[in-house]
Amino acid sequence: METFEGHISMTTPMVTPHLPAVLVQMLLEQGLSAHDLFEGTGVVLEHFSQPQHLFSYQQLSIIIARGLQLTGNPRLGFEFGKRIRHAHMAELGVALSCVPDMETGYQIMRRYQKILGSAFNLRRVDHPNYVALIANKLIPLGSNYHFNQESWLVSLAYNLSRGLERPLHELDYFVEFDYPEPEDSTAFRELFGDKVRFSQKHSQILVARELTRIPLVGSCPTYLPAAMEACEEACQRSLRPISLPERIRSHLRNLLEAPPTADEVASHFNMSTRTLNRRLEDLDLHFRQLLKEVKFDMASQLLRTTDLPIGLVAQRSGFTEASNFVKAFREWAGTTPSRYRAQLRSPETL
C-alpha cells in the first residue's frame, strides 16, 4: 500500500527564482517596496538573483497577495503573463526555444513543467480540430486563483504568437476561464478580442491543430537533444513531489479496464475516503471527475493512435458496454468515437 502525506507542501522550498523574479521586478517598477512585499516571509531581494535559491509556495503566495492588495490591480496576473518569455523558464525555456514546432513544444512543456515548481499541472486534451492545454492547480490557491490562471494562460497565448511570428488576432485559438467575466474585462478584450470566453468548464487554451504543426522559423533542433538532457537533470534536482491528483490519475490509468472505486483508491493511498474527497475538494476536484478525465484521455489516445475496434477501445477505457461508451463520448467530445477518429486523421485537421 502506497503512503501519501496529502497536499504538496506549502512550506518546503521548491520553486526556482526565475519566474518570481519577473513578478518582483514588475512590482518594484510600479513603486512597491521590497520591505512591504517581503516583510515576515524570510525573503530578501537578493534571493531573486541567486539561481539555486528556492522559495516555498507559502512565501510566493504571500508576495502575490500583497502585490494584488498594494497595486489594487485585479489583473496583475494578466500583466505578469504578458511579460513571461522562454528566457524566464530556466532549462525548460532553453528547450522550448529549440523546438521545431508547437506540438513538440507542448510535449516538452508537459514533460518538464516541474522544473519551475509551478502551482499548476498542464494537462492536454485532443479535440478533433483543437489541442487543449488545461491548467489544473496542484495546491489550494484561494484568492490568488485568478492571478495564477491569468498569468499562465496569457503567457501561453503570447508565446504562441511569438513562436509563430504572427499577431494573436490572426491565429485560430481560444482562451477560456472557469470563472465569470470580470466587470471590467477591457484588458481581455483588447488582447484576445472575441477569442476569450468566461464561465467555462475549464481554464484552458485551445489551439487549432494545424497551428501546432507549422515549422518554427527560430527553432534550433540541433541543440534540442542537449537542452532536453539538461531538463532531465533539472527534473532530478527538483524537490516538487507528485501531487495527489497526479498520483490518482496514474493509478487509475493502470487499472482502467476495471476501474477502482473511490474507497479502493483511498485505501491504496492509505487514507480514508472522506480524507481523499476533502483533499480533492481543496483543489476543486472530485474523484468522479478524475476518473472521467482518465477514461476519455485513454479513449482519445487509442482512437488517435490505433485501429482498435470501438468495442475494444471502450473496454480499455473503462466502459463495460460499447453503447454506453459511445453515448458518454458524444457528450464529452460532441461527436461519436468513429467520427472523432476520422476527423483526427483527415488532412484538414493535421
UniProtKB/TrEMBL annotation:
Pfam families: Arabinose_bd, HTH_18
Organism: Zestomonas insulae
Domain HTH araC/xylS-type: 246-343
Coiled coil ranges: none
Record flagged with keyword Transcription regulation: yes
Name used for this protein in its record: AraC family transcriptional regulator ligand-binding domain-containing protein
Keywords: DNA-binding, Transcription, Transcription regulation
Domain of life, per lineage: Bacteria
Xref: PROSITE patterns: HTH_ARAC_FAMILY_2 (PS01124)
Cited InterPro entries: AraC-type_N, Homeodomain-like_sf, HTH_AraC, Tscrpt_reg_AraC-type_HTH
Keyword match Ubl conjugation: no
